[in-house]
Amino acid sequence: xxxxxxxxxxxxxxxxxxxxxxxxxxxxxxxxxxxxxxxxxxxxxxxxxxxxxxxxxxxxxxxxxxxxxxxxxxxxxxxxxxxxxxxxxxxxxxxxxxxxxxxxxxxxxxxxxxxxxxxxxxxxxxxxxxxxxxxxxxxxxxxxxxxxxxxxxxxxxxxxxxxxxxxxxxxxxxxxxxxxxxxxxxxxxxxxxxxxxxxxxxxxxxxxxxxxxxxxxxxxxxxxxxxxxxxxxxxxxxxxxxxxxxxxxxxxxxxxxxxxxxxxxxxxxxxxxxxxxxxxxxxxxxxxxxxxxxxxxxxxxxxxxxxxxxxxxxxxxxxxxxxxxxxxxxxxxxxxxxxxxxx
Length: 343
Ligand SMILES: NC(=O)c1ccc[n+]([C@@H]2O[C@H](COP(=O)([O-])OP(=O)(O)OC[C@H]3O[C@@H](n4cnc5c(N)ncnc54)[C@H](OP(=O)(O)O)[C@@H]3O)[C@@H](O)[C@H]2O)c1
What we know:
The protein has 343 residues and is of the alpha/beta class. 38% of the residues lie in helices and 24% in strands. The chain is built from twelve helices and 13 strands. A hairpin with a 3-residue loop joins strand 12 and strand 13. It is globular and about 60 Å long. It starts with a strand and ends with a helix. The structure holds NADP nicotinamide-adenine-dinucleotide phosphate. NADP nicotinamide-adenine-dinucleotide phosphate binds at residues 10-16, 44-47, 70, 83, 98-101, 108, 126-128, 153, 157, 209-210, 212-213, 325, 328.
C-alpha cells in the first residue's frame, strides 16, 4: 500500500525546483521502498499561490518555473491570497518551506510555519529564517500539536548535522563545536587565493544556485551565524538568538591576506564556533587563520564541515561536498520520508 502525502511547497527556486526534480526521478523508488507518494497540492513563489487539490504534475511545474514562469501564470493561481492563508482549511499533511531567508520579520516563512503547525500539519524547512527568529516558539507549537518540525536541510545542506546532534550524541556533554558552514564564502576564499576575483567567485556561486538570494548573508557571516543559532537551540540546549553571536564575515579579506596565509602554510576560513562556558556557550563567527592540518582548513572549495567535541563521543569530524542545490532538496526529502517511514 502506498500512502499519498498531500503537501505544500513554498518557494520554487533552486531548492524547490530540485525537490520537484527528485519527486519526478524517484517517484517509483519512494513508493516501492518507503510506501510513500508525495503529491504537491499547493505551491507558492514571489507572485503568489496556486492550489490544485488533485496534485500538480512535478515535471510540468518545474519546467514552467525553469522557463521563467510564475505561479501567477498557472491556471490554478489564487489571486490576493498569501501562502499561509491558502493553507487554512486545505487538506494537506506536510509543508515544505524553501522561500528566502528574511531576518527582519521571517516572512513569508514564519507565518506559513505557524499556520501549518497550528493546523496539525508537519513542517520541513530549508529556510533558516523562521527557526532563527522563533525556534523555541515553533518547537513548542509542534510539540503541543503533536506534529514534526524537521529542519536537517537548514544546516550545511545535506550534511546531517542536526540529525547527528539530536539523535546520535545521546547523553553527551558537548564542550565545543567548530565548523565551516557556508560554502559560498568558503568557495570565494579558495578562488581568491587562486587569483580569481571576489566578484567572479560570487557570481559562480549564484549561477550554481548555492548563494543566498541576498548574498550579503553569506559573505558577512550571517548565514553561518543562523546555522550556529539553530545548532545551539537544537542540540546544545541553549535558547540562543543572533544577538548572542559575535559575527564578522569575509568582506575584509583580500588576496594579499590569503597569499600571506598560504606562504605561512596556513589557510583562512570563516569559522563558526561554540565554546562551553560556565553559563552556556560563547558563540562566534569570524575568519580564522588555521594551520594546514586543521580539519577545517581541509574543508576546501564547495565543502562544509563540522567538528563536535564531547565527553562520550570524543571528537567527531563530518564534512560534505555540495556544489549545487540538489543535496539540500534531498535533505528535505529525507526529513519528509522520516516523518512517516521507520525501518
Ligand atoms: N540553495 C541552496 O543550496 C540552499 C542550501 C540550504 C538552504 N537553502 C535555503 O533554502 C531556501 C531556498 O533557497 P533557494 O536557493 O531555492 O532560493 P531561491 O532560488 O532564491 O528561491 C526562492 C523561492 O522563493 C520564492 N519566493 C520569494 N519570495 C516569496 C514570497 N513572498 N512568497 C512565496 N515565495 C517566495 C521565489 O519566488 P520566484 O521564483 O518568483 O523568485 C523562489 O521561487 C532559502 O531559505 C535558503 O537559505 C538553500
